[in-house]
Structure prediction request, 1574 residues.
Amino acid sequence: AQAQNSTREVAYFAVPAGPLTSALQQLQRQAGVSIVYEARDLQTTQVSATELRGARVGDILRQLLRNQPLRFEEKQGVIILQPTNPAAPAAPGKRAPQSRQVKGRVTEAGGAALPGVTVLVKGTTVGAVTNGAGEYTLDLPEGAETLVFSFVGYLAREVAVGEQATIDVALVQDAKLLNDVVVIGYGSVKKGEVTSAITSVDPREFNRGVVATPDQILQGKVAGLNITRSGDPNATASVVLRGASSLRTGQAQEPFYVIDGVPAASINLVAPDEIVSIEVLKDASATAIYGARAANGVILITTRRQKPSAAVSYSGYVGLEQVSNTLDMLSGDELRGYLEANSKSLSPADNDAGTNTDWQKEVMRTGLSHNHTVSYGGGSEKSAFNASVNYFKREGVMNTSDSERLIGKINLDQKTLQDKLQLRFTLTNSLLTQHLISELVYKNMFTHLPTTNIRNADGTYKENLTRTQYYNPVALLAQNHEERKINTLLGNASAQLTLLKNLTNTLSLSMQNEAVKGGSYQGRESPVPNAANVTGLAAKGLARRYSVENSRKILENYLTYSPLSTAAHNLKVLVGYSWQEDKNGDGFQTDTRGFVSDQLGYNNLALGNPGGVAPNYDAAIAGYSLGISTLRLISLYSRVNYGLNDRYFLQVSVRRDGSSAFGRNNRWGTFPAASLAWNLAGENFLSGFRKLNELKLRVGYGITGNSLGFDPLIATQRYSSVGTFYYNGAFIKAIGPTQNPNPDLKWETTAMLNVGLDFGLWQNRLGGTVEYYDKRTSDLIWNYPVSTTQYFVNTLYANVGEISNKGLELTLSAQPVQTSSFQWSLTGTLAHNVNKVEKLANEQFRLDQVYTAYPGGSGQSGISTQVVKTGYPVGQFFLPEYAGRDENGLSLFYKADGTTTGSPTLNDYRYQGNAQPRLLYGLSNTVSWKNLDLNFFLRGVQGNKILNATLANLNIPAQSTANNLPAFSLTEPYADNRANYYSNRYLENGSYLRLDNVTLGYNLPLKSEYVKRARVYLTSQNLLTLTNYRGIDPEMSLGGLTPGLDNNNFYPKTRSYVLGVNLDF
Amino acid sequence: CTDLNAPIESEYTPSNFLTTPEQFIAASGPVYSQMRGEVAKAYWNLQELSTDEAVIVARNGNYYDGARYQQLSLHTWNPQNEFVRVAWEWGFSGISTCNRTLALFQNTPDGAFKTQFTAELRTMRALYYYLMMDAYGNIPLVPEFGNTTQPTNATRQQVFEYIEQELKAVLPNLSPDVSAQTYGRPTQSTAQALLAKLYLNAEVYIGQPRYTEAIAACNVLIKSRKHSLAANYLDVFAVENGPQVSEIIFAVPFDANLAQGNMMSRFALHQQMKDKFGLLFTPSNASLTWPEFFALYQEPTDTRNQQWLSGKQYLSDGRTPVLISTTKKGLDSRYTGSDGSAAISYHLELSDRLTFRDAAKFDVGNDELGKAQGTRNIKYYPDKSSTSRDQGNDLVLLRYADVLLMKAEALLRGGQDPDGATALSLVNQVRTRAQVPAFTTLTLATLFEERSREMAWEGWRRTDLIRFGKWEAVWGQGLKTNADTYRRLFPIPATELTLNTNLKQNPGY
Prediction:
């Protein structure tokens, strides 16, 4: 608690190039500190233009004094500035003892010179500052033992002098210092003052490789944040924070994204290279400021705004992607042999002599990806700009699937009214083009007989259409096309006005527009039925086009007031208002049929010959709703932060949210939160523990809501088209109620208690965080069955159920080795969560359980494999128990009474494990040696089950004249016609350990006046997986209501190799 | 600004809908589109798969689906059965929709339009009630919409009386007209035919014979001369059937594109029949008839034989055989000869036998012989113009031939006819149309057989078997032996009992 003035924070500090004295005057004014110096010492000193955000006075001074022979120290609250080497006054009489000289060079870990580093003889004010080449010379006074090397943004190092004449030192960047300021939504606080569970992720920790969106770069990095990435270039990752807490799926389970302060902005707008930091707000005391949308956590993304000086950078990579694993299916000859051995034979139509078609191979390829980002910026102290362009193209490993994206972004910042008004403008546009494929391919690439050719002799695709859902996978990709173009535009303008010295008003206006255009075409030969069971073959070509726009307008205005800012008391108050209106589904879709050629696809609907079939305007578009719907959200929020003596911190916030989607009787909700932090390390009773440099206990409790994914009309009675009826000689549209009204419908409520402990030892060489949370979500929304004796329709959306999640999270980071040429740092995360459905029914809405996860499959329509039931977690498997085989080789299952049966019924089912892992972990290692660095990242889960329904459905030996078999089936009795029945036989351990990312980088030791920095790296993603799981990949999405179900339903996982380069000019 | 009233721009809600007569007509549509929803699916399954007339067997595991079809055939269903649940929800949604539409309509000005419209909706409600009472017996009686207290079971007698009163009350206000203008909606004939059904089965429903009243209802209908037998039996059910078929009293209109839900051909046909009927989709090869039912068709000239597909199959030209290229083992997976892989060409023959390979699982195998098992019904003739799996044949629920047979049966069961018609002459009208020789004598047993031949696959078999006391008989090659009389009623679905604790399960379940 000594040097308090130099640790005081300045939210924004900027000076133009000019005399140091005027910069110091400004600093005194802004920070309210006293700085004393001899004017003659500074007379000629000039500083370059400087801009810093959220920096401490000491850091600002270090920056200003960089390259200057000046140093500062604080004594009794006054900062004293003096020359590093005061002219030694000639001592009269006695001659000073001869001091010896030491010199050396200070570099970054990568080897680049570090100018401006302060080199100080410990315990004295004697020191030097390194020059442009990073070199210093220092006269050592008598008794000098240790040199301290310090520089803003780097970990200080102490080196014993000994007898050395040359001391070279490499400094390591200090992640903690870089992220000294933590964004908390509508503002920021110093890391030491954080009172809730927030994890900051620095760009250097991001996942490298073929990565499209911000969620994917966080995979495995944040304890408790479970992200599943798909191999599909067009799929979004599923993100679940601290366990499932909604029975609704999709957006309702995803965190809430705030990008550069714009709530609910599209993550498609952010190129990973442009991200400066990501903060994950995990507990309710942190997220409650976002109210009714915050229950799944909030992810705050900050992108690059501007560079301190004119600069250009480029980063890019080229990647190759391959499928990481395939299923071992029989070859044509193996299948023929197997059938022969079981005295069965293929129909001639299914048996082309000598053919061994590997369908998995036929539909897959090595995908090529490349990504380029060019970014540049500059300007003056008054106005600055930054512009960037990102291009990303990724070919999927499944033929014809790919995605291509172009993002352009411009920032303009301007200061006026004597810097009292700060204007900011950002315009981002993303154009994403996707080529999608039919999900039928995933099943047919396994089931299709390897004994048939891809094509007939006449060049047409070979098909056997006497079987259901049995199609030539190559033809599926060739004959069916779907393309989607998503243009997302975000404009944001904000004005920050300093009204009084400690009172600021910020007004932010945003507008986001997402325009989706798409089309699909099923060719004239395509035997695949569409949603209305019409095939391209029957219709002679089926074309569909759609266009839909979703727009969003947001106004945010907030005041920040800091009435107290002394050494002992620090009080900040925030009060804000926000208004948001979303207009979704503004568009239409239509279709036609009957084309004479496939050549033009869906590009010219006018060429169709629909032959009296009316266009279908009602068809659903996956991921989008059609029909204009307007959602309005209005909020008032406030937050108070109070710090006492740098040791006790309190944060209290409240938000009041109103939504037009909520029922008439429950339009407004209030979401309060409070949290406390106690900085134990600052207490006197711990002052003896010198190794301990951080110890902080945090306790927080808050209430948040979940109203994400709400249809704006979810609570209203609706009339819609319910088919047609015959009236007066013609079919006309029947219009009837399609939704019961529920005026009481509201958000889902989550109350969360969080207890956390942050610690740091040995100058943060070892640091970590432990979190415990207890999260209880009530008012869960479910579409409850209601009796049609009283209601319009047989279901009603109502708030009834409860789910709890309790867990522990541990994050540890360490720097075991830190020498000038060799550094090793590692970070590990570990998360444990227990999920439980506490309640599903109440007096009014009765529901014993919900049977879910119907994999379908031959003869198994309508068989459920999971149950959502009170007392069990989401993803609870509920299945027959396998009892081996009878004397005829037929599978048996236990009945409820312990005897066995060949046809188990629901009464015989048993609760058998669940899909949610007990442990999730990640371990990241970075080793640098001189200019080389190696990072490898391990990730895994433990203690979960997966139902391998894919294998079950393939394991039907008796149908092997119609469907190919996996090698697994070779040891199965041919006669077992119930081998495929879902039971715990197919319930497998889903644990895995994955070497998820390995990156080898090299910083080129350039001494060029053109290129400041150059780095090349090689990355491999998903290099190795250790698991006992028999399916293609054990990594299952934990989103949705039926996690852990492997049912021919996913795009294969991939392995990629990337060569990348980063250049700064 | 704290105004949360966002505009509603693309949906009808109570604030912007139901203000004009045209909107009311559209709002009555759900009553009819609801009827279409399951009448040819779940409801049909309850009425037909539970009898000797239709069955869905498993083919090497396919269509086993947790024994849901098998349960119906063997009378072993439980309150969890999928079709028991779906049919209930369908029927009571229909009733609820009628109640709601009637409530909405009360506020409109009186007039001829309102009078007839109201009568039609009440007749539809009576029809839904009839179907539910017939299937489930002691059902809740909820004649009004919006009452949130949960109803209790009414007795079957109470429901019977309610239906009777309603039909009688609305009869004068229904249209007497039988034309394209009224087709698909209930007319006076519809109400009379439904009354006849109600009275004919009164002994089953309420334990009282009401045969004379059944005859009276038939008589009004017959004497109105609005309906007559179609010259050609299959025309009544053809893809093009519609208002021009005067035999139809009430049909549920379907269209392959505009009004989907009839997929009889998709379920009934063998995959290879695609070529024979020029279909654009591959049928699923599921529903068949039991051989003993098919055995009722013995007269070679009977035009009603044409509704069955059996024996060796030829393409539409009648000459080209339907050939399936396979191997000996592909034909019969049980073949053990060493030349099992030898290619053969199999002339498809739909077997009128049903040979189970695994009777416990209702499985007939899925080799070519297995696939060819069973006689198929094409009464609702396949729709070659359809590009989906749906077909355009309107489902005939009430027709004139049924009225004639009902009257004949009521006479045989002791009902009095003031017009003095004989049961024999009525039945012979039907036989003559079918181009089979007239009967000279008639007993309830021969009438039952005639009725079976005439009314196959039309959704009345379960009701008929119960009335004739044959519901507890053995059929299905001896597999169906369950004789529990409580199964004359289906159970109230388990889900409904969970929702409404005031309801009591039917006895026996």
Residues 112-136 of chain B form the longest helix (25 residues).
